[in-house]
Amino acid sequence: MKLVKLAMLSLAVTATFTASARPARPVPYNVRQADGTEITLRTLGDEHFHFTVEAKSGAPVIKQNGTYFYAVVNPATGLAEASAVAVTARPTDKSFIEARENVAEAMRAATMQQAVITDNGISTLSTDSRATTGGFGLGANINGVPKNFVLEGDVPCLVLLVQFSDKKISTSTADINSWLNSDTPSAQWGGWEGGSVRSYYIKQSRNKFRPQFDLYGTATLSGTAASYQGREGTMLKEALEALQGDIDLKKYDVNGDGAVDNVYIIFAGMGGHLDSQYIWPANATTNLSYQGLKINRYSYVNEVDDANYQQGIGTFVHEFGHVLGLADLYTTAGNYPSNSTNYWTPTYWDVMDTGCDLLYGYYPPNLSAFERHALGWTEPYELNKAEFIYMQSNENNGQAAMFHNPSDENEVFYFEYRDQTGWDQYHCGKGLLIWQIQFDQNSWNNNGPNNNSSNPRVRLVAADGSNGDNTSVSYYNTIFYKTDPYLEGDPFPGSTGNTEFSPSSSPAFLSAAGKSMNLANGNAARITSIGNKAKNGKDYMCFSVDGAPDRGAYTNVLGEDEVLAAITGIESDAADTFAVSCSGREVSIAGAPAGTITAFDVTGRSVVSAMVDTDGTATFTIPATGIYILRAGSASAKIIIR
């Protein structure tokens, strides 16, 4: 058969370097062959490397002259070439099926060897992997451009509407604005009710971060939609030239560093993650300047899905996560497994993986406890002693817990409760999610924390010990009906009823080095009695640390102030009290006795003290979210900082 060169492999070697994109949506789709027959295909990968497979077998295919052929490896050249015409049926040639991973590898190797192409100097690939100072779990830079997006307060965000000579925006500006900014759910998008991007991030940040997306446009560009594939920097340049007279860019340099924090484009039509012939949504870097300001970073996302409905917010939320500093949690190295039951990444459990596709993006899941902590929006409770924990769900603003490896400050386990409500309602299964994080600044700067299948740096510890999401078989069950057996077994106790996470359990509570880790009392860290309990009419996920029983002296309730157990040495229910008002973490006191006022956390540790003025007032800042007892003389008050 004729050897198929790289340009004919339906692979995208992008002209604009994109530091972070979203993965392909693994939805099977039908295409009509040149002879009139239909074939069902799926796209795997991301913008940097993606390929097409026949949906049932997972066998890579090549498009040539309007027809898809099964791909095989030419042993003489190591490149992929066309063989038999692809059909929607499981091939019977055993050797052909066994060779499919070799075909994908040949495609991947050819792609990664390509020379870097620049987009007229607008966006270029940088090999800079300097590890500059960044938060735990955040990339400090993209392409050497520091990430310094403001993460608290009311933050204006610049969004441009863009259409092309052959593809126009079909959604009303009012609907797009509602999709971005509405404070109430809407049922206008494809008939499904969902929240806005703004409401999603307000929820994730516990109201600390309130983005306002200012929509400008529509800018009509001179070229066709296809002509900007791989020329996204040119798309940005032309859009700014068309609209800059209407925009005061200084408003979008929130931190005053002389650079617009980010420009977000919504472009007409569908995206490359749905069909690889279109522009692939991503977050990228550039070197443009307008109105005396640099534009270092920009993002772009499609307007509609493959059914021509206004798409769900999941892709926008995912790419905006990159703007904030979060990394992709799928593999960005191109080493996608052809066997879809062998994934090592969180898949649908996380919006920075394929979770952005839950209910076609209308209900992206809550950010994980690790991601919220990395962004500075929550402060998980530190596990380091024998105690019994009550934990509310992520959706209900419950405080997560974490355990640090005493021998490695960059290895942390996070514990959070997902309950299939709110933004988490389309998860497959509910229960305690356990995350193992191994932070490495270079991995995050290079947007590849999960590129090593044998040692992913953001690993969901599955209660059933499984890897994989089985997307080739149960994609529709996963995103619509929440019945994927692989995902249902991931939480604790989950579908397997696993109630223990200890050095001797399966999976085992061990460090990445395979060693047990100790609590402050010298005992090996172990979590037992994992399960749900009701208290005061509310649902909690509970577990014991180091075998502690469920009784008041050991109980800590995470995320709920009215059922906080008594803390030894603190009279939390004293008769004398004073007036307290809170604005974020700023606390103001009135009517307190003269002297000193002290805030204690739930462990009884003093976290901050302040002098009470002669008029009985005091002001101070609580260092983190959580539950606190304020004590001044014989008077006390209980507060919760969200």
Q: Nutshell version of this structure?
A:
13% of the residues lie in helices and 30% in strands. With 642 residues, the chain is of the alpha+beta class.
Account of the protein in words:
- With 642 residues, this protein is α+β, with helices and mostly antiparallel strands.
- It is built from ten helices and 33 strands.
- The strands form eight sheets. Strands 1, 10, 13, 14, 15, 16 and 17 form a seven-stranded mixed sheet that branches. It has a six-stranded antiparallel sheet with strand order 2-3-4-5-6-7.
- Residues 1-18, 109-134, 469-474 and 560-575 have low confidence and may be disordered.
- Characterize the main sheet: 7 strands, mixed
In terms of structural class, how would the helical and strand content be classed?
Answer: alpha+beta
Helix content: 10-25%
Strand content: 25-35%
Number of helices: 10
Number of strands: 33
Q: Any idea what the radius of gyration is?
A: 26 Å
Query: Could you list the spans in which at least 5 consecutive residues all have pLDDT below 50?
Result: 1-18, 109-134, 469-474, 560-575
Q: What's the shape?
A: globular
Lay out the secondary structure:
Elements: E1 20-21, E2 29-32, E3 38-45, E4 50-54, E5 60-64, E6 67-73, E7 80-85, H1 94-98, H2 100-112, E8 141-142, E9 145-146, E10 153-163, H3 173-181, E11 186-189, E12 192-194, H4 197-204, E13 209-220, H5 232-243, E14 259-260, E15 263-267, E16 282-290, E17 293-302, H6 314-324, H7 369-374, E18 381-382, E19 387-391, E20 401-404, E21 411-418, E22 431-438, H8 441-445, E23 458-461, H9 471-481, H10 485-488, E24 527-535, E25 538-545, E26 555-558, E27 579-583, E28 586-590, E29 595-600, E30 606-612, E31 618-621, E32 626-632, E33 635-641
Parallel strand pairs: 10-13, 10-15, 14-17, 15-17, 18-20, 19-26
Antiparallel strand pairs: 1-16, 2-3, 3-4, 4-5, 5-6, 6-7, 8-9, 11-12, 16-17, 19-25, 20-21, 21-22, 22-23, 24-25, 27-28, 28-31, 29-30, 29-32, 32-33
